[in-house]
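Lay summary

Proteins are chains of building blocks that fold into shapes. Our project writes down both the chain and a compact code for its shape. Here are two examples, one after the other.
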Amino acid sequence: MIEIPSAPKHLGKEAAKEWKRITPLLEELGLISGLDRAALALYCQAVGRLTELEDAFNGQVKRLMTDRKLDYPTAVAEASQSTTPSGYVQQSVMVQLIKNHREQVNRYLQHFGLSPSARGRVQPSNFVQPTLPGIEPPKQAPGGFAQFAPGLIGASLQ
């Protein structure tokens, strides 16, 4: 059944924004149900954290441009690396975290059919229970309140 699950309370600010942005789109495409809450929360948290990391990195670049009067490419290069106590230059922790979160987000996009390549593999819900080829579903009388629907009272199961 297609439904938007309630957003978990632990979502961060950016993750909650992503939840509000993506859930109506998933519902419109028939790609969401109440069972997807945990997976969707993981996706939204990864997007939220990636946004926060990108913002922090951009802030660091702006500070380098302002404080050290560096041009943009030089500031990006400077922010992208750090020097260990022994003098070894390596990729900065911030850049490593951004890379890891980008990979996480990409994996979640694949699961929800939200990338161009994944869209072809994802089937929206059509509310119909699939049947096996060659096996006819049994004819059953309606259950629950459906048995009292107009036209069904006393109807035969032909």
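And here is the second example, written the same way.
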Amino acid sequence: MQSNTLMFWSRSLLPPEHEFVLRHFGHSLQSLQPRIRLHLRRLGDTRRALSMNGGRIYLPRSFFEAGQPERALKLEHPAVAAVFAHELLHQWQRLQGVAVTRKALLLHAKALCLRHDPYTYCASDDGVAMLEIFRAASVEQQGQMWEDYVRAVVSGGSMSCMEQVRTFVAGADASCGPEVTGSQG
């Protein structure tokens, strides 16, 4: 594949990626799934993933089998699966009416000024408490919680404290989206 073609390259999800979305998100992304496009990250920090409006997810070349973006994502690798899930959660947040890009930009600008990590969150072993923490968290904290959960699952472990969050995300509709307040962005 020529580099000129890769600059604007994108593709829809492949069957294993659709299965991954269904396994971790239930049908909550069903309305967006046909529009989700994977892009090769070409600008900025190309080692990091990025999620944009309209189902656009930008991923590093290393996330694809043999480094070839037309091939499937390496979803058996816990780190790849977890980061992909994090970016998919941002798409889920958008379906709930959250202005993810604006809130994330403000969080990252604030983090630079105050030198703090916008992904850090306080966890609980209690499922009910964890759901409350998730619903009150910022967009990046929610993404990090979901990333940690999927990483544990793909690694063969579990995070029982996240079961209620998983049920919430998988069964969410527009009437029960995350409570992201103005003070978080």
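What can we say about the second shape? Confidence is low (pLDDT under 50) at residues 173-185.
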